[in-house]
């Protein structure tokens, strides 16, 4: 279990959506300092947050950001991209871009911050996944999130003996800019942030933040036709 009161936390993609909600919830829980990243740090609006410029796909940018935050004990890998490229019809560069952001970005951040968190006595890693980690309805986005889920599961085993716990957050549609064009039920980002941080504080391996995530996870052991209606025809 990880206490967030008084903790120093680094949140990628902290200027809007779930990231912004996480920053707000962290301060509501008494976090000592929250670093909030964005490509343009001027877009970080929380009055107490420490804005940090970051491009998660750029190793030099990641290294510079980590050098600014050497007191961190909790890393939240929230930043992501949703192109949803088709494997057959989209440019391969679009597929690569999603993997660079959604898989390699969190890996770069984790590799940069693990030594920092270790030096500070251990801590926690929270990574944003998706219900689409488990169901392939989003093209390359689903594939990148599935790969990230596997990365998180591996890191959990590697980091446990080093005093760093790992939580994966899975959620469906959330009422953010990313899902603005989606006509479907959406979760409140503040609710998702609260559930995610509850998971950190209780040491949960995974947080399933909504009904659809729980339903799809439960269905993984069943026949594929139950997950993909097209196969039942």
> The CATH topology is what?
Rossmann fold
Helix residue percentage: 40-55%
Order of helices and strands: EHEEHEHEHEHEHH
> Class, according to the CATH hierarchy?
Alpha Beta
Kindly report the spatial arrangement of strands forming the biggest sheet. 3-2-1-4-5-6-7
Q: Quote the distance from N terminus to C terminus.
A: 46 Å
Shape: globular
Structural category is: alpha/beta
Please indicate the count of domains. Answer: 1
Unreliable residue stretches:
none
Q: Beta-strand level of the residues, as a percent range?
A: 5-15%
Question: Superfamily at the CATH H level?
Answer: NAD(P)-binding Rossmann-like Domain
The CATH architecture is 3-Layer(aba) Sandwich
Q: Characterize the biggest β-sheet.
A: 7 strands, parallel
How many distinct beta strands? 7
Radius of gyration from the CA trace? 17 Å
Number of helices: 7
Summarize the structure.
The chain is an alpha/beta fold and 233 residues long.
Task: Describe this protein with a few key phrases.
233 residues; alpha/beta; Rossmann fold; 7-stranded parallel beta sheet; oxidoreductase; SDR family oxidoreductase; SDR_fam
Structure report:
InterPro entries: NAD(P)-bd_dom_sf, SDR_fam. This protein is of the alpha/beta class. It has a single domain (8-232), classed as 3-Layer(aba) Sandwich (Rossmann fold). Helix content is 41%, strand content 15%. The chain is built from seven helices and seven strands, in the order βαββαβαβαβαβαα. The chain has a seven-stranded parallel beta sheet, sandwiched between helices. Helix 3 (92-119) packs parallel to helix 4. The model has no long low-confidence stretch (mean pLDDT 93).
């Amino acid at each position: 279990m990880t206490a967030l009161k008084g903790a120093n936390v680094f949140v990628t993609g902290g200027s809007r959506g779930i990231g912004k909600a996480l920053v707000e919830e962290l301060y509501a829980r008494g976090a000592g300092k929250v670093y909030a990243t964005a490509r343009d740090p001027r877009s970080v609006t929380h009055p107490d947050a420490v804005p940090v410029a970051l491009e998660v796909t750029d190793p030099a940018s990641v290294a510079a950001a980590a050098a600014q935050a050497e007191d961190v004990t909790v890393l939240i890998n929230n930043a992501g991209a949703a192109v949803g490229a088709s494997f057959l019809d989209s440019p391969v560069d679009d597929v690569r871009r999603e993997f660079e952001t959604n898989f390699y970005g969190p890996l770069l951040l984790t590799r940069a911050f693990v030594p920092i968190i270790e030096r500070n006595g251990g801590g926690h890693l929270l990574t944003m996944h998706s219900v689409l980690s488990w169901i392939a309805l989003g093209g390359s986005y689903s594939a990148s999130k599935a790969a990230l889920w596997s990365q998180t599961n591996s890191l959990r085993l590697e980091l446990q003996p080093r005093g760093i716990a790992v939580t994966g957050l899975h959620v469906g549609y959330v009422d953010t800019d990313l899902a603005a064009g989606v006509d479907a039920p959406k979760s409140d980002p503040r609710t998702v942030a609260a559930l995610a941080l509850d998971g950190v504080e209780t040491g949960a391996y995974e947080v399933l933040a909504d009904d659809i995530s729980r339903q799809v996870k439960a269905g993984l052991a069943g026949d594929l036709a139950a997950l993909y209606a097209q196969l039942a025809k």
